[in-house]
Amino acid sequence: MQNTDMFKEQYEKFIALITKVVKNISLYRLSIYGNQGSILTDVPLAAALVVVGILIIFVPKLTAISALFALFKQIKVEIT
Is 5 within the bounds of a domain? Predict the structure, then answer.
């Protein structure tokens, strides 16, 4: 019984955290900067998460290649 109570408590905390993030997600922006510090893109975080989620589901290889490209090009990703 004790394990189920602990699990239920942790689950409720997790759901509360997710609810809080979803309610406030429109306040955050995703900015991607190039090598010289120029802004490549600046979009709302919610839109970025939707696009990344779709890419991961439908085109996982393209997502992996894009992540490697970003790593080698040394771009800076910032959530503000």
Answer: no
